[in-house]
Amino acid sequence: MNTIGRRIIGITMIIFATLSLVITVFGIYQIWQWREPLVENVSSTLDVVETTLQATSEGLVVVGESLDSVISSISGLESTVTTLAKSIEDTAPLVSSLGILTGDVLPDAVISAQTSLESAQDGARIIDTVLKALTIFNRSAYEPEVPLHEALGDVSEGLNDIPESLTTMETSLNSTYDNLEVMQADISLIAEDIAAINEGLEEGKNVLKQYQELISDVQTRIDRFQSRLPSIVQTLAWVLTFILIWLGIAQIGLLTQGLALVRSENTYNEQSED
């Protein structure tokens, strides 16, 4: 390598090493200058984050209380609807029994009563005849406005329309029974839907609880990190300082080599002049 080239390399190494040393010293100064502000800024940011988490946690508590109120109301509604369905279920057999009673039992009873009245009417006609015969000498002793056999006949005729009315009632009761069955089934479905809604709300409440636990865990971690933040930054500052010092030592070696090249070149020039 010629003399000029070695001198240029040496000067370049000196300049580069000097600049690197300046940057290293400046970097070390900045590290320790910004150490406390960094701790304050990070701590302030963590305070904001923690405040936000606290507000979120309080909001979740309010939402949870609202869910509890809604769940309680829906549970009451579910109980009421279930009771209604049970009442209808219990009423349906009674309506069915009434239908059987009005459609079968009562018409038969009315027919039997009419038969009995017809038999009694024949007997009453005989009794009327006998009583009239006994009172032949004193007509005023037995003068009913309506003879007994005629009265019994009127009663029997009055029962003629009852079987038809009972049949109409049976039809209405059967229709009511069918409607009650449909209504009971629909109300039972409504109760099931309400129960499903309640289950969904319970799951939502569990999710809120999990989020609250997560927020609490994050807050604990933030508090722990915040308490250790000064020592962490201190350690990081020492590590960076050590790295920069190590780089500075390397630059001193480079500076020494550059000076050695320049000095050797100056020595070579002096020897050449001699």
pLDDT < 50 runs, ≥5 residues: none
Number of helices: 4
Helix content: over 70%
Question: Overall mean pLDDT score?
Answer: 75
CATH class value: Mainly Alpha
CATH topology: Helix Hairpins
- What pattern of helices and strands is seen along the backbone? HHHH
Largest sheet: none
What is the radius of gyration? 56 Å
Structural class: mainly alpha
| Euclidean distance between termini CA atoms | 22 Å
Globally, the shape reads rod-shaped
The number of distinct β-strands equals 0
Tell me about this structure.
This protein is mainly alpha-helical and 274 residues long. The chain has one domain (3-273): Helix Hairpins (Orthogonal Bundle), CATH 1.10.287. It is built from four helices and no strands. Helix 2 (35-134) packs antiparallel against helix 3 and helix 2 (35-134) runs antiparallel to helix 4. The longest helix is centred in the C-terminal third of the chain and has 112 residues, at 162-273. The protein is rod-shaped. The two termini are 22 Å apart.
